[in-house]
């Protein structure tokens, strides 16, 4: 420590609110460069690398192959999938000297799909899982809590490519298992919850949320049934509402065709996950329509009693045109749009609370009380079309609500998202036509999965879950050093004895941080607590009598042991 590039701080940094942030800065693990942008100092980098390695080992164990893609990317692939715009302000966009648009990658679905298309051409090549551990960039609206929500951060992102649904499901399950192994090895307490797929698109998705009161995600869980879901994704069975499998931006019409009720019904049957038999059951779907050269316009279709009017409006504005489902960007742009189901008589779960499934991009009115019939949903404006107070609020899930199947009770808690797994389906492989030659000689469109772990965020999460009021406390799996050896005495015998013990520990495969500074024992002990190695060995007063003290940072215990036994006890 006399030469280690480390300065510990006695005071909490002024901008830090959560414990992990305060401690990681005070203990000299990270240093702030700009909001959400941090440098890793020696001890911090060792923890980061340890987390990375556990992630790497478990990804390799399921057959993942590590590659590394650039973070600096051309606009074009993201333009093809619409994410250049849909990602909104969170995307770091820049131009090169020639004026070409570029971006700093927030996530790499596009690039992996393109890479596989370029390299693979036969069904014999599949399945494949590729991953990278790489720096990601997102211009977060509220960078927060140091490395917990950075604008530059390290993510492990992997992508699976399969020939069929069974294969895709197997790849998803393999990742799910790998993530459990990773978080178990890291000693993180977490839950797996149903999730929405957000900007990734696709259908099935689950999040791994670390238990933490400082978490920004709220989830509900039922002890009785084991049901657990992010509140964003609570699903309740809804009679007569039309659930759309999270497929944003499905293109419905060929340019030049004119939509009719019949084509809409066909489209709904092809796109939605329940059968639509007539326009009557097509109620309350919102779509966006675009005539050539015009902007997208949000319209409601098929509302009973109102549908002829609607269809006329639709047809009038659609010649020729595209029709697509609303996506996240539409909701982001139009705050008045409220996500939720809307049924003919309101939609309640068994507990009497209105629940929202944001995957359902169809219903946007959220109406309680007097106005339960539903009305027009075109160009919704808060205040004009509905009362903002008392209506939207009812969509929140509350403690004590029943589970969707009515057999359990929900309790809510906070968590930090540490992993997220998605079945993307063909969203990206369609966009880039990623096909291989199938066994029958026909082309097969590949099915993609996408899986992320917040590697740098995990360092903060572990610090958050493991610290005490004295400082950090690292689990053995990620600690920067196994043993923190404090030289608490000036005698040559003590110093030599400490160095010999360090060498023995090292030979036994334990990494050792030696505090050989000139500071007082009191200062050294305080720093040892702050830095958080799981074992602290004090070579000092007892050494002349042949003992050293071993302190357990987790248990808070201390015991004098014979020097000769120290290595065995610590191994
Ligand atoms: P969040 O909900 O916290 O914003 P996300 O859902 O946007 O996360 P994903 O796109 O699912 O994140 O990315 C995969 C993983 O990357 C997340 O589960 C999380 O652990 C991590 N991650 C995402 N954003 C950040 C960030 N700004 N800083 C650190 N880690 C992040
Ligand atoms: Mg995010
Ligand atoms: Mg999230
Ligand atoms: Mg996520």
Automatic annotation (TrEMBL):
Cell location: Cytoplasm
Domain Aminoacyl-transfer RNA synthetases class-II family profile, first and last residues per copy: 31-475
Major localisation: cytoplasm
Record's GO cellular component terms: cytosol
GO biological process: prolyl-tRNA aminoacylation
Keywords: Aminoacyl-tRNA synthetase, ATP-binding, Cytoplasm, Ligase, Nucleotide-binding, Protein biosynthesis
GO molecular-function terms, A-Z: aminoacyl-tRNA deacylase activity; ATP binding; proline-tRNA ligase activity
Catalytic activity: tRNA(Pro) + L-proline + ATP = L-prolyl-tRNA(Pro) + AMP + diphosphate
Classification via InterPro entries: aa-tRNA-synt_IIb, aa-tRNA-synth_II, aa-tRNA-synth_II/BPL/LPL, Anticodon-bd, Anticodon-bd_dom_sf, Pro-tRNA-ligase_IIa, Pro-tRNA-synth_IIa_bac-type, Pro-tRNA-Synthase_IIa_type1
Enzyme Commission no: 6.1.1.15
Domain notes: Consists of three domains: the N-terminal catalytic domain, the editing domain and the C-terminal anticodon-binding domain.
Assembly and binders: Homodimer.
Sequence similarity: Belongs to the class-II aminoacyl-tRNA synthetase family. ProS type 1 subfamily.
Annotated function: Catalyzes the attachment of proline to tRNA(Pro) in a two-step reaction: proline is first activated by ATP to form Pro-AMP and then transferred to the acceptor end of tRNA(Pro). As ProRS can inadvertently accommodate and process non-cognate amino acids such as alanine and cysteine, to avoid such errors it has two additional distinct editing activities against alanine. One activity is designated as 'pretransfer' editing and involves the tRNA(Pro)-independent hydrolysis of activated Ala-AMP.
Protein name, per record: Proline--tRNA ligase
Species of the source: Gordonia jinhuaensis
Lineage per the UniProt record: Bacteria, Bacillati, Actinomycetota, Actinomycetes, Mycobacteriales
């Amino acid at each position: 420590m006399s030469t280690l590039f480390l300065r510990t701080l006695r005071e909490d940094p002024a901008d830090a609110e959560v414990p992990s942030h305060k401690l990681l800065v005070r203990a000299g693990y990270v240093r702030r460069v700009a909001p959400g942008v941090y440098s890793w100092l020696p001890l911090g980098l060792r923890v980061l690398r340890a987390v990375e390695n556990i992630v790497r080992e478990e990804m390799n164990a399921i057959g993942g192959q590590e590659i590394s893609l650039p973070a600096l990317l051309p606009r074009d692939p993201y333009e093809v999938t619409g994410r250049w715009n849909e990602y909104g302000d969170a995307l770091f966009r820049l131009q090169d000297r020639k004026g070409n648009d570029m971006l700093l990658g927030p996530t790499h679905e596009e690039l992996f799909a393109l890479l596989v298309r370029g390299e693979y051409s036969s069904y014999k090549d599949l399945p494949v899982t590729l991953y990278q551990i790489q720096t990601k960039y997102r211009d977060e609206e509220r960078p927060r809590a140091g490395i917990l929500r950075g604008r530059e951060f390290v993510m492990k992102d992997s992508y699976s490519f399969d020939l069929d649904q069974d294969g895709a499901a197997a790849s998803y399950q393999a990742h799910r298992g790998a993530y459990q192994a990773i978080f178990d090895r890291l000693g993180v307490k977490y839950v797996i919850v149903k999730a929405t797929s957000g900007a990734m698109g696709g259908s099935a998705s689950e999040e791994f949320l670390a238990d933490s009161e400082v978490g920004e995600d709220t989830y509900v869980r039922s002890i009785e049934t084991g049901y657990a879901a992010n509140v964003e994704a609570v699903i309740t069975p809804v009679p007569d509402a039309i659930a759309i499998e999270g497929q944003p931006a499905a293109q419905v019409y060929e340019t030049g065709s004119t939509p009719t009720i019949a084509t809409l019904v066909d489209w709904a049957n092809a796109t939605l996950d329940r059968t639509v038999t007539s326009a009557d059951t097509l109620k309350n779907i919102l779509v966006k329509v675009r005539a050539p050269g015009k902007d997208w316009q949000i319209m409601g279709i098929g509302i009973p009693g109102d549908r002829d009017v609607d269809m006329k409006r639709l047809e009038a504005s659609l010649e020729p045109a595209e029709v697509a489902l609303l996506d996240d960007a539409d909701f982001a742009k139009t705050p008045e749009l409220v996500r939720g189901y809307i049924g003919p008589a309101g939609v309640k779960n068994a507990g009497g609370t209105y629940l929202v499934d944001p995957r359902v991009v169809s219903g946007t009115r959220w109406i309680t009380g007097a106005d339960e019939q539903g009305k027009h949903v075109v160009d919704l404006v808060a205040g004009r079309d509905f009362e903002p107070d008392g209506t939207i609020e009812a969509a929140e899930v509350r403690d004590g609500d029943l589970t969707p199947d009515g057999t359990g009770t929900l309790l809510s808690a906070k968590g930090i998202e540490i992993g997220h797994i998605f079945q993307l389906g063909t969203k990206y492989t369609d966009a880039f036509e990623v096909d291989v030659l199938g066994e029958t000689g026909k082309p097969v469109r590949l099915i993609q999965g996408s899986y992320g772990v917040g590697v740098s965020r995990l360092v903060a999460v572990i610090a958050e879950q493991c610290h005490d009021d004295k400082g950090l406390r690292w689990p053995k799996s990620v600690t920067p050093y196994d043993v923190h050896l404090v030289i608490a005495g000036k005698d040559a015998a003590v110093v030599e004895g400490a160095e010999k013990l360090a060498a023995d520990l090292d030979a036994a495969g334990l990494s050792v941080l030696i505090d050989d500074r000139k500071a007082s024992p009191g200062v050294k002990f305080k720093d040892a607590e702050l830095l958080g190695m799981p074992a602290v060995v004090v070579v000092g007063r007892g050494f002349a009598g042949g003992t050293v003290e071993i302190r357990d940072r987790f248990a808070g215990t201390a015991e004098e042991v014979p020097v000769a036994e120290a290595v065995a006890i610590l191994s």
